[in-house]
Amino acid sequence: MGSLVRRVSRVVPRRVPATAGERELNRGVEMAAVVGVLVGLGVLLDRAIGTTPWCTVGAALWASVAQFVKLRYAYGASLDAAAVRRAASATAHQRGRA
After folding, report:
1. Is residue 62 part of a domain?
2. Which domain does 30 fall in, by range?
3. Which residues contact 45 (CB under 8 A, 6 or more apart)?
4. How far apart are CA 38 and CA 62, in angstroms?
5. How many domains does the chain divide into?
């Protein structure tokens, strides 16, 4: 397995880390896609069992809440990491690491 990873890593170039704008765009597209897919499944389920629009509404609400909870934890973690970096850099000049 290790040799396969080494061979692939030589062939496939490493991607440069995403900028903040790219990360936010990715999050937005992911949120829209998840909500869209679940709403589509809700529509199909409604048509199959004749409960229009309740499965669609339920799927949309569930997907939206789940995405916002995920966003809160992911964004909260990045805010915590930024606060630690900011606190470390605030006193870096005093330690001689300007």
Report:
1. yes
2. 26-90
3. 51, 55, 56, 59
4. 9
5. 1
